[in-house]
Amino acid sequence: MIKIYVSLLIIIIFFSSGCDVTDNNPANDIKSIYLFDAYIRQENLSNLLSNKLADYSAPIKIFVDDKEFKGTTEAQGSGSRYLPKWSFEIELDEGRIRSLNNFNLSAQVGDPSMLRTTLASYIYKEMGFEVFDSDFAFLKINGKNKGLYYIIERIEEDFFQRRGIPVFEVIKTLFDAKFTFNNGTNLYEFFEKEINENENLFHFENFIYALDTIKPENIYPDLGKFLDLNTYLKYHAVSTIIAAKDGFRNNIIFYKKNPESPYEIIPWDFDATFNPSFKETFYGNNEIIKKLLLNNTCNLIYSYYYTFCIENIFTESNLFPLIDETVKKIKSGYELDPYLGEAGYNLDIEADKLKSFISERREILPGKPPN
Amino acid sequence: MKKSVQFLLIIFILTPVFKLFSQVEFTGYGSTGIRLFERPIAIGASQEVYFEGKFQAEIKVNKDIEAQLDFRGSSDDENVTLREFSAKFEYWERMKIEVGNIKQPFGLEQMINNEDLELVEESFIHNRVSDFGYAARSVSIMVYSKYKEEYKTFPFSYYFSFFKNNSFTSGLYTRLSYHQNNFIYSLNYAYHSIGGNYPFKANAVCGDITFNPKDIRISIEVFYVKNTEAVLENIVLNGDENIYAAGAKLLAAKIFDIDGKFVKGLEPVLLFGYFVPDYDDKDFHTLQFVPGFNIYFHDDVRLRLNYSGLMTKNRFNTEYSSLNSLGTVELQVRF
Q: What is the separation of C-alpha B80 from the centre of its chain, rounded to a whole number of angstroms?
């Protein structure tokens, strides 16, 4: 019996060894963006797939440019968790990819063009904001193509350290936030402290209380102690121009450099920018802008940033070459994405739609907002 | 804290807790070995040494209630995790109830503890079915009865499990086995209701026949399951939801007693598998051949030699590729 078995074994190994070990998956030839060849052990992958809502952390190995990185991954994001293509957070044990050791692989579920984050990042940066680093990666897990993702830097301690910015507190705006105590708002439902250790929103509560109570004529001297008004007005003007649908009640990150300094703004999560369903032309709606625009100085500053952005930054001559360059860069990854190119989306068509939107939006935006 | 210390710490903390109960039994295994990969050098060395372990505490709370904690650690993961907690209520001899994060009863390999499988790695078909969400662990309520020799008048095992996971999926599993002499005939059905923004329903069936006298196991198993992975890729643009994967595998193993000074038994194992991810497109498929050899130094101490040969044709590799084939040599100690 054992002799028969050994003979069988030799025959099987003989036939198997004649096979080609190469993998002709065209994703392996992607050079214009990062290729993340990731491996998750079978049981861990099964647990990860069963825990999209539960922040289950699975060990992961990622091969990038012949280098091996070990770390953990978990499901990330809010809306994307409900969709077939979802986002991941990656935390590396050692080493950095693109200078980052903790980043998101964002599926950009609101953006079938995968271009909006590049454009919005460019515009916010040109307007003087600190913006998360981003780049593109094509993700494979256990040899299977998972698609094109943005590598997105997370707004954590490392973000501030890398930029030499002191940070005392970071508050993230959650979904459909209310910037008022009126109607019994519980701020803890809408805001989450990311930095520092304790979870209390004491300083933020003081800001919201001031926003509710300060008289319009005292906004500049008094509310300015709580919020960097120039920065906020600039943020709101830019977000309005680029039709950042989620930029007024969702994706604002407030940070304080020290306990006494006012809150400044870091824009976040851009897949809902350049959004055709956003019809406002003057300002996106929230309680902060409504209050600020009651003050003449604020009105003038808002108007300045609004006009400056339309005339100098949000222009076809700035944005179209960026679109063309990015299309070229991501095309091969886009076409192999099971949920984009392979699902029937066409990057050239999506890019054209985006260009048309920009041109049309420029036409409907007034040169300056009415007082 | 250094991750390798966690395991010892968990045991240290839990041991006095376990002593509060009338009876605690520890089971598990430790193993170490080397894996020899067939893969491009760009995705890692062709050889990797590894070690892993399982530590399971079975706590007898009283004559009718048992609880189980299952910890796993491996050099690949560099951490220890709680893989399972479950509680068993055994008020009735032929209807037990188990609640917890338990293996779903779908397919033969799910019914056997990992450390008791003849091969080091689970079969390719099992892994793919697991990718689709069927052969997985979930928080469940399971009603079951495992056949025992004394149940001659009722030669059945049955399992009904209702589960819900944290990815918008809930559903049920049923497994029925008929025991006749050394043969076991089993049928499995799984139903998944998958939620989220693109909800759909998934059905899966499998069946197996096992010939299992002492020291021999020959089993043949077939699967026909909705390929949830492909459906999720298709569903985005209202594509086809009816994509079914299918597969079959044959496993044969026999232990030969050898009353040597060191070697007590030899167990040759063979597995043949065929898997097609889309039943309507059989050109793309994977064949698996696994010859294995277990050398027993004791019933619970064995050296395992496996070669898991995979030959895959897919839309990128129209000729067979042996990518991801794997040779393994492993020493395993069960306790």
A: 19
